[in-house]
Amino acid sequence: MDPLEPALGEFEELLARISTSLGLPGRPEIDFPSKFAFVSARLHKFKVEPSKVSDLLKGGYKYLRNVRLEGLYINADVDPVILAGELFKAVSAMGDRYGYSSRCAGGKYLVEHTSANPLHPLHVGHGRNAVLGDALARLLRFCGSEVEVHFYVDDCGSQVMYAALGYEAARREVDELIKRGVKPDLAVGYVYSVVNAISEINRLRRLSEGQPDDKKREILAEIDEWLGVIKRHMDLEPDLVRALTERLGQRDLVAEAAELNRLYERGDEEARRKVREVVELVLRGQRETLARLGISIDYWDYESELAVWNNSAVRLVEELKRRWPTYVEYREGAVVFRADKFVEDFKLREELDLPKFVPPVTLTRSDGTTLYVTRDVAYALWQSRRGADKVIRVISSEQTHEQAHVKIILYALGFREEAKKMVHYSYEMVNMPGMKMSARRGQYVSLDEILDEAAERSAEMVKEKDREVASAIGERVGVGAVRFFYLSASPRKPIDFKWDAVLNMRSNSGPFLQYTYVRAHSILERAGSAPAVPAKIPDVIQPEEGELVVKLAMWPWTVASAARDLRPDYISEYLNSLALLFNSYYEKYPVVKSEEPVRGFRLALVNAVKTVMKNGLGILGVPVLQRM
Asked: What share of the chain is helix, strand, coil (3-state, %, to 5)?
């Protein structure tokens, strides 16, 4: 049920009457929501006499009021008292489903998100990906869509092999760390960074041999940076670092990683055991972090299984070479597809929604092995065959060109509809002021650290003497704060992680919205029984109450717009403005102590606020509390 439908329907009937009476060649274009009125219609493309239009605006309206012609706009307000009746009926009938309406498109979606490399803990940047993807899934499900959520496990490539070689060399020390309570993804993260450092130091030392002094000084400075990585980890876990440096220090890790990767991609049993052991350790830790955020994954898709061991990536390259030999080049043994030329020749930029610049793409190395983008095409094709209307891939803007290549190659292979249903859901980076992150060097802020600090800071804010209860509430407030932070801005906008914004109790934060819900819940609790539909709506209501009625009636429209545009931040923005409006209203007008029929009306209004806040927080994945 959508409480706005009767008023908008009445406006549509007015426009139909005007079009018919004046013989217009079409219907005036509607602006809703309008900046200057509840609803507007533009007459710009019609040559009409204003007086004739004004005459047709006269008449009785049930839902609209102050229908007028202003310039070339037909503007109309809505009667908030009549709208309140529609609102309360909709809230009462829909309850936890209020917000769903026929405006919701529905359909079937596949959402892939997070897909972090299985090398270390999820960090603050992965958090934005995970929360965005989860909020999209929640939003689409709320709108009645069928959604399945996938995590792509990138278990191939030399970096994963470094972690596998390190774990094999220091298995006892890593297992001891885990027994001691260190999360498995963090333990492997230590290994990955140290093995990278050892490998780079050995490579640079070989490179420095025979170099002139100035070049040698540059190389030695870089070696010092990597020695700093080892020193930093030595301060944290000396036994582990000692074991890794002693057992791997003299080995050619670049060559060993390449060989292990070659064997793994061939499906060698021993290589599979080595790699999968370390991958599963990391995924175990990452699952714990996601669960803490209230995020669940339906399917864990392994790159090796879907693109490598079945040779699908290799077959796709061969098919592309067969179909489009004039667009394939060979550069020092590597196979390159001229995606740039293909796009221009077939005018695909608009059809596939591609960026302005598309470079050529390398499909295989000189040794014939496939690259990540080639395997990603195989995975994308597999995704598109799961029956979804759209495949939404939540991937950072850094991969804009690669995701464009996936669509172009699918199109070139004859999978045109599959290419069109691919959506690269691009998002910008999360910046930690004063810190430069590098996973290879072990320089990152893990999502667990962020959640721990958010919970600790939130527990200090909670008005609860029992520290155990305060800690439990603090955890849920902290999760809400972090989740809302990631969802409070457009995905295309870079964001700076700052605690004063994350935990702002005055506006635009998870805790602020949670507190607003708690306030509404508390009012209704104090009032005792409060029917969702009041016995009588006062003939005259306060201007702020009228604003609240219109705002609450806009909720289904907001949900449908957010689902249509795939923008969870529409929900965040709406809830923040509703909370500001409600808190300002409550500070000014009594609710429980007011006289009937005002009391019943105001309690119904508070109940509508509570319902919308709960439903909206559920879409955002922000925990709902009854006290804080």
From this structure: 60, 10, 30
HEC-encoded secondary structure of 11-64? HHHHHHHHHHHHCCCCCCEEECCCCCCCEEEECCCCCCCHHHHHHHHCCCCCCE
Per DSSP, the three-state class of 70 is: strand
Supply the pLDDT for residue 396.
96
Q: What is the mean pLDDT of residues 108-118?
A: 97
Judged against a pLDDT cut of 80, whether residue 276 lies above it is answered with yes
Domain positions in the chain are 5-78, 87-91+98-105+449-620, 108-155+303-431, 158-290
Which two tokens mark 374?
């080639």
Q: What 3-state class would DSSP assign to 433?
A: coil
The long-range contacts involving 232-235, CB below 8 angstroms and separated by at least 24 positions, are: 232/442, 233/190, 233/193, 233/194, 233/197, 233/442
User: What's the pLDDT tens digit per position in 484-527?
Assistant: 999 999 999 999 999 999 999 899 999 999 999 999 999 999 99
Which of the pair, 553 or 211, is modelled with greater confidence?
Answer: 553
Torsion of CA 557, 558, 564, 569, to 10 degrees: 180
C-alpha angle with apex 434: 431 to 439, nearest 5 degrees? 60
User: What's the mean per-residue pLDDT of the chain?
Assistant: 94
User: In 422-509, where do the E strands start and end?
Assistant: 422-427, 430-431, 495-496
| Alpha carbon separation from 568 to 56, 200, 445, 560 (Å, rounded) | 40, 42, 25, 11
Residue 437 confidence (pLDDT) above 70: no
Domain 108-155+303-431 matching CATH 3.40.30.10: the answer reads: no
Q: Residue 273, CB half-sphere, CA atoms under 13 Å: how many?
A: 3
Looking from the CA of 243 toward its CB, the CA atoms found within 13 Å total 18
DSSP β-ladder status, 334-337 and 361-364? antiparallel
Give the pLDDT of residue 444. 81
Asked if the 87-91+98-105+449-620 domain carries CATH number 1.10.730.10, the reply is yes
Could you say which DSSP state residue 463 is in?
A: -
Average pLDDT score over residue span 238-254: 95
